[in-house]
Design goal:
single chain, mainly alpha, two-stranded antiparallel sheet, 5 helices
Length: 137
């Protein structure tokens, strides 16, 4: 989806010859790179037992994201770019190709929701109420 946003924003910029910064392809390229790095980090998580998976206390997610420079200081900017991306996808063919087959949210929209939850109220105090779990498929 992030790759689609890069392509759409370039096409829109070329067609409209606009200097509109709200759909900057560079932002979507950075978002795509960040998501690929996150995917790689998750794939590198050492899963010792296929049955048990990998589980850590909730604050671990902040350590993982901090390695990608996603912190309380940067989360709002990232969420803003994700919101722009979701809007761009929705404007392009109503976003139908980017929604789940059952009409559910796009994966980018879900990622934005996760980040809003993680960084709500600018703190991590709520992290003690959950755990991070990675399971092999």
């Amino acid at each position: 989806e992030a790759k689609s946003c890069v392509d759409l924003s370039i096409r829109r910029r070329d067609i409209e010859k606009s200097n509109d910064k709200s759909c900057n392809p560079d932002n979507f390229a950075i978002l795509r790179a960040l998501l690929l790095k996150l995917e790689k980090k998750i794939a590198e998580v050492p899963i010792e037992s296929r049955e048990l998976g990998f589980t850590r206390p909730g604050p671990y997610i902040y350590e993982l994201l901090a390695e990608l420079n996603v912190t309380n200081d940067t989360a709002d900017m990232l969420i803003g770019i994700i919101e722009e991306a979701v809007l761009l996808l929705e404007e392009d063919g109503n976003g139908t190709e980017h929604k789940g087959s059952d009409g559910t949210s796009s994966r980018l929209e879900t990622m934005g929701d996760i980040l809003r939850l993680l960084f709500k109220d600018g703190g991590i105090s709520h992290a003690k109420y959950y755990r991070v779990h990675v399971q092999e498929r």
